[in-house]
Amino acid sequence: MSQSTSIRRQTERLGLGLTAILAVAMIGLLIIDALRSYPLVGGIYDQARIASWWLDHYLGTNVFYHPFMWRSIATGVLIGVVAPLVGTYLVHREMALIGETLAHTAFAGVAIGLLVSATTGWSGSLMLVALVVGILGALGVQWLAERTDTYGDVPIAIMLTGSFAVGTLIISYGRGMTGISVEDYLFGSISVVTPSGARLMAVLSVVVVAVVVATYKQLLFITFDEQAARVARLNVTWYNTLLIVMTAVVVVGAMQILGVILVAAMLVVPVAAATQIARSFRETLVCSILFGQVAILGGFALSISQGLPTGGSIVVVAIACYLLAILVSGRSTAAISTH
Q1: Which residues cross the membrane (predicted)?
Q2: N or C end of the chain: smaller count of CB under 10 Å?
Q3: pTM for the model
Q4: Do residues 171 and 182 lie in contact, with contact meaning Cβ atoms separated by under 8 Å?
């Protein structure tokens, strides 16, 4: 192993380790926020608020003292882990459009939840409704792909336009009713991240990471040679469904900050940047997560300092990382090994 390769791997491991520590810390903050009514946890929560006040004081801001900002940052950090993690499989299978499709499906779920809330007074979680509808949409895409003779991306296109049309009709029907407001879900907003939505994202992130770790070899096999996987009697349909459902889960969580229009960016752009410099699939996974974290943290920094929308800031930073990776790599395509 050359010295440059050794330094490269050490840097990747360091970055991945720091990302893991940050993600665990963010989950810890969400747990403290959820359990703050208990005396012991309440004391830790109060100390965290004081530390946030001092952070605002030194940075000259007025955002970190507010709990909703930390919930948004925690949600963003977790998105920066699971979106590129799942997106790496999607990009290598040429399924990048599926993220956009499921985002539009989740939008229909939000529309349904908003309409039900406005007409019946129901006060449940919109993210939970979006999650259920998103998963049903994912299963619908898989069902269409398995049972139709059309080209591979046709069922995806049909679901994309159909679900957005349904969401538009529902919003149009409910226009003027109290509670019908979808702009934040279309374009993303940190105000959309509710305590329940942030906690749901934490739980789903742990589940997605655990599933990917447990099924890494099977998903890798199917990604690069689906026919060989069928010959080897691997349940390809099951693993395809699992991947699409995980995508729906990630999309619903990311939609809170990025919005329906931009949500697919975190599934694709960090992976596209990683493929420019990575030499293997495993390295692509690691680098895409690192680029995802840079995009999330850099996007939040840009948003807070300049008063810009968070979702757009994150995507712009992600694209900047992609362009920088192209310049650094000096190649148009990357030869990726399956190791």
Answers
A1: 12-32, 68-90, 102-120, 126-145, 157-176, 196-216, 236-254, 260-278, 285-304, 310-330
A2: N
A3: 0.86
A4: yes
Q: What are phi and psi of 29, to 5 degrees?
A: -60, -40
- Domains of the chain in start order, with CATH, are 3-34+66-329 (1.10.3470.10)
Tokens read off for 163? 């679900």
- Residues constituting the chain: 339
Report the C-alpha gap between 337 and 284 in whole angstroms: 10
Mean pLDDT in consecutive groups of 10 residues from the start of the chain, 339 residues: 75 89 92 86 85 84 82 91 92 81 82 76 74 83 72 73 83 62 68 80 92 92 86 86 87 81 87 90 92 93 87 92 88 53
250 closest CA partner among 129, 85, 25, 68: 85
Contact 96, 150 (CB under 8 A): no
Radius of gyration of the chain (CA): 20
Structure tokens at 315: 């995507």
Task: Please list, in sequence order, all residues whose beta carbon lies within 8 angstroms of the beta carbon of residue 146, skipping any fewer than 6 positions away.
Answer: 237
Question: Tokens standing for 6?
Answer: 């050794």
Q: In one letter, which amino acid is 101?
A: T
Short-list 158, 20, 36, 171, CA closest to 81: 20
How is 1-35 classified by DSSP, letter by letter?
--HHHHHHHHHHHHHHHHHHHHHHHHHHHHHHHHT
